[in-house]
Here is the input.
Amino acid sequence: MNRFQSLWMTLALCGLTLQTFAQITYGGSPWPEGERPEAVTMPAIDRAALAAEDAVTDRYKEAPWRFGVEHEMALNPVEHGVWTVEQGHRVWRLALAAEGATSLSLRFDTYRVPKGGQMFVYAADGSDVLGALDHRNMKEWGGLAVGVIAADEVVVEYRQPVSEVEMPELSIDQVVQGYRALSGWPHADRGPFGNSGQCNINVNCPEGATWATEKRSVALIVQGGYSVCTGNLLNNTANDGTPYFLTANHCLGNPGNWVYYFNHESAACTGNNGPTNQSISGGTLLVNSGQSDVALIELSQTPPAGFNVQYVGWDASGVTPSSTVGIHHPSGDIKKICFDEDSPSQQNAGGAAVWYISEWELGVTEPGSSGSPLFDQNHRVIGQLYGGSAACAGSVNNGQPDWYGRFDVSWGLGLSDYLDPAGTGTEVWDGYPDGAVTFTNDAGVNITGSPEGVLCGSEQVTIEVTLTNTGENTLTSCMLEYSINGGGAQQQSWAGSLEPFETDVVTLPSFTSQGGTNTVEVTVTTPNGVADENALNNTTTVEFTSYEGPTFNYTLTLVLDDYGSETAWTLKRLGQTLYEGGPYQDGTNGEEVTVDFCLEEGCYLFRITDSYDDGMCCDFGDGSWTIKDPNGVVVDTGGEFGASEQIQFCADESLGLSDLEGQTLQAYPVPTSNDVTVAWPEASGEACVLDALGRKILCESVRDTQTTWSTEAWAEGTYLVQWRSDAGRLVTTRISVVR
Here is the structure.
């Protein structure tokens, strides 16, 4: 038994796992006992030359911090490594080695794998494992950057069932050999990416205690062998957790190649090393400008709940703060914090509008800190680090300045399009999901219990409001003011005891909904009997619809396949989304999801999509969808499609007529590109054609047993043909027009 197998078995017997999460991974373990080829060895590096180069570039904040050497490669499963057949799978392995490396990481310039394929990257001695990576890790740019493995030899292992005909497209174009920590990593006095000066302050020192919320937004950016910069997640006015990431324009290379490491910090005030097991690979550049040295990126995936990230608030007003704080990764080191107790000034540096920090009172920044956020006294971002000459001089800082690109200038350069998607015009916004505790007396409200979807007629409605203490003082009392459908303000007092960030659910008195749109607005006032110091979280509003006339109860039943995360659907009428669902969890093959629709008389468009373009059935589970009418009759069903499929159906009072069942109109040819002929049950009544949005494009009286229409002026798509008899009987069919 080799060392790898022994270590693996020991940990397995202890109930432990070697799997890490250096990218978002999807379970499973490699098969280390299989055939392993001779390692591809990296060329020797000139450590003396590297040290000389680093001695120069390490002095400049604008230069990225180098921790590794990038070896250009051209490795693929066709020409390199070995293929075997094991346990009903085709397995490819490739070994990579670099003598004395502190870490190894790699980049695929081509990464495309079929469903069912899994890839692992692991240390040859079994000490570190990354995976499984699969088709869900594919990026828009076509490749994949893989995080660091703390070893000097790694194995790349890919496998897929022998029944899978499609083969992977994999190509490794770069291997990064870490060299800065010469005695091996991890160890006590240095992290994997670099080490900063002695005057820096760990973010978890007592000085940073009140910034524990904001630090969760900050991430280290790594590209190849460089700790490129720092950046942070930003909230938007929709509070929806879209992973918008702020950094500096001068940091830009290809954000799609970057790996974004969150929570790389020491758990204590002392210590020089931190975890590297929470990261995202890849992002898309949305906005960049040299006018304020700003770059806004959307990460390729949303950080999972286990990362416990924060999307911080911002201030685009341009008001000069009374003090500032920076949180950053100097020289690729673990997360640090610095403080300036004075107001910055607005200046220009290198053609960019900046906040000028004349001197830090505590802590400092260094190369690698570029792009890191500057916070005001209210814990909101007002800029990102552009440059400066501040640095450590032994155990103290050198008293030199730094400058940060101004967020208020960046706001008008494109940030507002993404961070204020509804165009509300707000210039100040707090974080998500947690606000910063920066106010003595502050209470916030959010409606968390209200009708979902549409109410079938007037009903008794109960609204639940979550009250949160977002202040520093214990919250013992407040007043809730609320209005229903624009009516007069009503009040409900609250008393209790909530510590900072604790919550309580308050139920408002029930009321009867009105037909049409219903609006409820709730405002919290006078926390602890005094004025609320923060008005941004005081008011919450919810809207829902209640139908006035006759309604019909339809049912959607989804049977999920193995990849529920690819499935989403909408139900629309006249272009308005009434119901929607998905994506769902993976690994739920056969699980049923039932959704009830309350529909008015009219026509509706149901559309279901699969993000992988292979439908819900039948290669990876037997998924399906079915819509039934109020009589339990199947309106339509499906599951075998590509990217999407859609149907149109109509809810009508005639659903109660027994002679509707089993009848349909005959139309030919279908699909059609010119003329279409429809045969009618009788030579009377009225015929209408409705488009995919439910709009009537044609209505005429029926005076013959069939009608022929020209479709040349009709847009390509699906149409519903309705025939209603003089007695009110309704029969329908669908036709498709193609071009």
Summary: The chain has five domains: 3-178, 202-258+275-429, 443-546, 551-655, 657-737.
